[in-house]
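Methods — Computational structure assignment.
A single polypeptide chain was analysed. Its primary sequence is given first, followed by the predicted tertiary structure written as structure tokens.
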Amino acid sequence: DPLPDPSIDSFASAGRVGAADADELWVVPGAVALPELVDLLDMVEQGRPWLRSRVACRVALGDHQLPVPVIGLGSTQADAPVALFVGGVHGLERIGAQAVLAYLRSLVMRLQWDDGLHRQLEAVRMVFVPVLNPGGMWLGSRANPNGIDLMRNAPVDADEAVAPLVGGHRISAALPWYRGKLGAPVQVEAAALCEVVQAELGRSPFVLALDCHSGFGLSDRLWFPWACSRQPMPHVAEVHALGRIMDASLLHHRYVLEPQSRQYLTHGDLWDHLYRRAIAQAGGLLLPLTLEMGSWLWVKKNPRQLFSRRGIFNPELPHRQQRVLRRHLGGLDFITRAAASWQRWLPQGAARQQHHDQALARWYGPRR
């Protein structure tokens, strides 16, 4: 089993979790519980005996500690492919965590009756890190409680100049997009995600990761590395092949698949760091994608959200939030199915060269 026994360092104890356990693990004493963690605790309870769970790390928030939970589901075979879902990296972008949680809840409900899902899970391992930055989520901050942006925190520098501030800086934690001090260790939340990814790459031949965010443009974009360079990533052919099967089978989707560098470059991207390490260690293949939900569309439909810091990054009206979550369920399920069947679509030989050439023409040729 790739995940430790739930009875060891887990937010789901070997027996039923009682109120005292929930208070200790999910709630900041004297305050209201973080809703996303409470929702996850409820899913863990409903998902027994199928879910495996542990706490990757705990984040200091004043005198208290908040957990970063990891949920496992599906195959425990070492050579099973992996679909990894991450949310809540930026605490202000709660819709990303909520999208991952909505997908996990749909799986928990289906496990109670769907034989097809049970058969599918024999061939794939699913790993969820729905709330990577619980402290930032609690504080309503993009950064973690130390004021550091986890997506600017990795030891990766861009190949060329980046946009001031937004590309990552070391000026002060009082400014957004702060990378942290030069030479300092990565933050505990970033280290926890690295540990999760490295553990899976050490076992599995293929890991397809989706990190859910919000807050860029009018379209839903799927970004892939590099964020630090305008050069093609080594596995651009594989991403292009993934895009082809997505276009052919996820009908009427609204995702724009592209390298992040087509929009802007950044220092310290955590997925650049993890992808680079995966290549250097010559283990399993890691294909990381970042979903950037087009939050400007929500603001366009409800301009009053401009006056709310939370509203810039999240749909505030209940019906619109439900619509967003419903729209992305199919996309997240596609990621799972693509991971489970990776050997059927991953290009080899001449097909790989063809996808490579088509990717260069599509994403790295002259802009139209």
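Note: The first helix runs from residue 19 to 26.
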